[in-house]
Amino acid sequence: MRLVIIGSGFAGMYAALSAARLRDIQGVSPEALEIALVAPEPTLVVRPRLYEPKPETLTAPLLDVLNAIDVDYVQGSAETIDSKTRTVQIVAAKGARKTLPYDRLIVATGSRLFRPNIPGLAEHGFSVDQLDDAIALDRHLHALAHQRQSAARDTVVVAGGGFTGIEVATEMPSRLRAILGKDAKPRVIIVERNSAVAPDMGASPRPVIEESLRNLGVETRVGVGVASLDKSGVTLSSGEHIASATVIWAAGMRAAPLTAQIPAERDNFGRLLVDRDLRVLSVPGVFATGDAARAACDGIGNYALMSCQHALRMGAFAGNNAAAELLGIPTKPYHQEAYATCLDLGEAGAIFTLGWERTLKLVGAEAKKTKQQINTVWIYPPPAERAAALAAADPEHVGEL
What we know:
This is NAD(P)/FAD-dependent oxidoreductase. Belongs to the NADH dehydrogenase family. The chain has about 400 residues and is of the alpha/beta class. The chain has nine helices and 25 strands.
């Protein structure tokens, strides 16, 4: 029997760990239940940190962990999924192709930034969506130091005032001063189509966020969108033109394109609809997890968000349940009633909220310590030691607050 997991992000990593944990508990050998993880590199990109400096350092190796738990790493990119023949076509190095059969498949392919067809966005826009994007932005920011001082050089426009946009914008003043000199006076502007920044955060934390933006000197343009980009900067839907050498797109996410190959219903974000065990509806043998799945967190109408917080736990349940089906034992319905948000606000600290209503619990330096703990410890892979790695993957405890 073979369980194939596509993706080495938070959901894919914990799917592999949890499946291996259940296999170990049941006393099944790796030969009897093969677990294979497919990804271009055996690396976890710590995506929630890509707004930070030195993004090239924000990865964690997975190969030693996978070897410790007897999970086979298959290097390559999944190009085609055939759910009828239960095979995955993989493109490996130098274009070599191979077919990997599966008995159960877990789609953990994550998400991608949604880039609309705005004139000039592809040519002139930056992002922190993927590792290569964040590295390109970082190189661009350092190259600004070699340009003559001007309003455009010193101005950064962040398109999108949601979670990612705010973290990018509030980190930017200190990043630019580190590059351009402590006497530099960078100008950072958030552009948000909604009537307020942080539109999904709710009334409790928003005043703190807005005050932090003011204290950092971050400007906002709300109720407007980006109409076009060119070499000189960005033009807004209001007609305002902002001279800027750096426009960062941070508005909207979609499930990775590979999910479209599964013949099943999807939501507006491209996520596959799944049942409480994270099985893809109407497609036998296929599970989806993390940003690839629209999954109910509880019985009162809350659904998992595209976040590492949900991906970690969803991955653990998907891995457990796919392995359980193959081993003929009961599955464990996914549930994640507890929900927290921790938003970095750069030199202004952070905010920490609890519950779906986002009740404010910590602010400033105290919340910043929690954010740093999350970013540097909690979301990283477990030790590459078999017992510790397997123990960390109990789906009932992964992601607990």
